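just leaving the lab so this will be short. what follows is a protein written twice so to speak, once as letters and once as structure tokens for the fold. can you read through it and tell me how you think this chain folds. anything you notice is useful, everything is just below:
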Amino acid sequence: MIVVVLSLSCSKKADYDFIITNGTDYTINSFVIGSGNDRIDVTIMPNDTSEIVTYEFDGTFFNFTEPLLTLAVKQYFDSIKQYDYNKGGGTSIPDLKEDSENKVTIKLDKESSVSNILFELEIN
């Protein structure tokens, strides 16, 4: 019984490919995938798409919840000034595709105004 529980709580090492599309008029200076030492920073020009970016997930052990991957806009630029944003979210690693690209689209949130920029992320 213990062996079964241990094997269910482990996850394997995997590589996940991402293509990030910036559907805004802002330069995204830093779009973050992951956290800590495993973090990848990507810059995406306005209304442009990134090259394929690969995130190497080392796997985890003894998960009682699904492992999450941070996806966030950290900084953006409006042609005059750079802003720290530091907002985003997480996605469940088991929901990501291993055999094809994971698509992330950055859009302006419908509630955004000129003085209060909010980004919205769509995944796959």
Summary: The longest strand covers residues 82-92.
